[in-house]
């Protein structure tokens, strides 16, 4: 009886291990590309850790909300807030990639959940001029006819 329980526990642990190991490879096929950061692939796209597992990044949370699918909405989002859409970062700027098509391998790929990673071909517009601030002090002191 005790041996049967031990086998059952071992099987459950093995199943947990297998399911966690296979979690992200399944999701990889749902995305147009695997990002490259500092010249190395980042297979755990939705996670803070390069190899996946553990804490998720902003893209991982958005991917979750999209049902773990590459939707047009997810493609057009800028999950990490770096000024580039998730599609631009994963080589699908027009949001036309669908599951089953070959994954994009352009050198311009970057990480959609890491704001410090931007497409190499499109440097961030760091010098973008902020909108002209309204001073709120209109010098329109018109003489009121008194
Ligand atoms: Ca982005």
Distance between the termini: 103 Å
Strand content: under 5%
Radius of gyration: 23 Å
Helix/strand order: HHEEHHH
Given the helix and strand composition, which structural class is it?
mainly alpha
Ligands (ions, cofactors included): calcium ion
User: For the report, how would you describe the main beta sheet?
Assistant: 2 strands, antiparallel
Describe the global form: elongated
Strand segment tally: 2
Helical amount among residues, as a percent range? 25-40%
Number of helical stretches of at least 4 residues: 5
State mean pLDDT (0 to 100 scale).
78
Strand order of the largest sheet: 1-2
Low-confidence stretches: 16-23, 124-146
Ordered list of secondary-structure elements with their pairings:
Layout: H1 2-21, H2 23-28, E1 36-37, E2 40-41, H3 58-65, H4 72-76, H5 86-89
Antiparallel strand pairs: 1-2
The structure holds calcium ion.
Calcium ion binds at residues 78-80, 82, 84, 89, 112.
Summed up, what is this model?
29% of the residues lie in helices and 3% in strands. It has 146 residues and is mostly helical. The protein has a domain at 27-121.
What do these coordinates show?
The structure is a single chain. By secondary structure, the chain is an all-alpha fold. It is 29% helix and 3% strand. It has helices at 2-21, 23-28, 58-65, 72-76, 86-89, and strands at 36-37, 40-41. Strands 1-2 form a two-stranded antiparallel ribbon. A hairpin with a 2-residue loop joins strand 1 and strand 2. The chain starts with a helix and ends in a 57-residue tail after the last helix. Residues 16-23 and 124-146 have low confidence and may be disordered. The protein binds calcium ion. Calcium ion binds at residues 78-80, 82, 84, 89, 112. Residues 1-23 form the signal peptide.
